## 1
Amino acid sequence: PNGIEIDKFNKNNRISTKRFTVGFVGRVASTVDTEMLKIVALSLPQDIQFKFVISGDVDQVIGWGLPKNVIINIDIENNRMPEFYKEIDVLFNPILHNAISRVTLESMSCGIPVIMYDATSRSKYFSNDNIVEVPRDLEAIMNKIEFLREQHQVRGIIGDSASDLIKKRFSSEITSKQVLRVYTKALIEFKV
């Protein structure tokens, strides 16, 4: 299980910007809907900023001819990621596999709403209270981004719920105890 260092990834000291900012963090690979990521980046109004932190096939993204409201950061070190999350208002995470990524959990821990495809079917812990689900459809994604931009209070409620969930279920302290129990049980069963 992914354990999140909640003392490092938290919703304290958010950086307030006048410009609404969408973020994306990830590897440009087959697990990410790169085509939708590109279309969203090209479709956002100029008054919305889109900040990327990417690794993998960086040249592919640079070759998209993105507008000036899209900022690309390449291979940021993990210790700088809390700062990145504090600079965005929502995270767009178009992952294609049936899992919850570390990026999703880190963002949620920082109180940032995460927009993603069909997230609630991935775990019993996720709901529309703490994650923002969208179909794999440009219009639906753009409408959700615009809704979250206009509804500051809703963003706050979702962010608070997401942060609370991470503290209760996915903090490093909790997941390390779970892993220890699994290994202890395995050692006992196999008499190692």
## 2
Amino acid sequence: NVYAIDYYFESLNFLKITLTLLNLYIVLQLWYLNPYDIVLIQRIGRFKVFLSKLMAGLSISLLFMLITVLLVTILGYRFNLNTVHTNYVTLMVYLIIFTSFYHVLMIGFSFLYHHILSQFIVFICMLIGSILVDFLMSVHQIHWAVLLYNSVFVNLHIVENFELTFIVSPIYISFLMALLGGLSYLMFLHRDF
């Protein structure tokens, strides 16, 4: 049972880190290192270029997320590490929200700071958010500063009773993603190529 609990915690950390690093790579390739933006914008317009880049990046990261969750699930079943608290469907839904949020956040940071290191700042802030909340900690014991930090850099946590949760509401995360996506689009409209 101890191995199953440790596997659940470590697989969540593995998934969060690999998905954020993949989003970092995708955003670097799509938004920084793409020399064909001028040609695409002249042919099809800024909105379609922005939307196609956003959808391509999200579809690649979500496909990779499905593959890694499937890998974690198969390994868990293979080594008999699944217990009552392991719910991979909930994990997959929360990871879809997590991956989409960090993809949009990295796009926003790429337009805001115009530097490649801004992507690493987002990754480091995600790691700090993982460290701030202890494993199996009660939600009511979390300090207000940590709650404020997790409202900006949203993160997945395993709290008491092995409950997988965001500290903030998924509706708030969806609103924040829409706001960041809209601001990113506005910055993309005024970007010089």
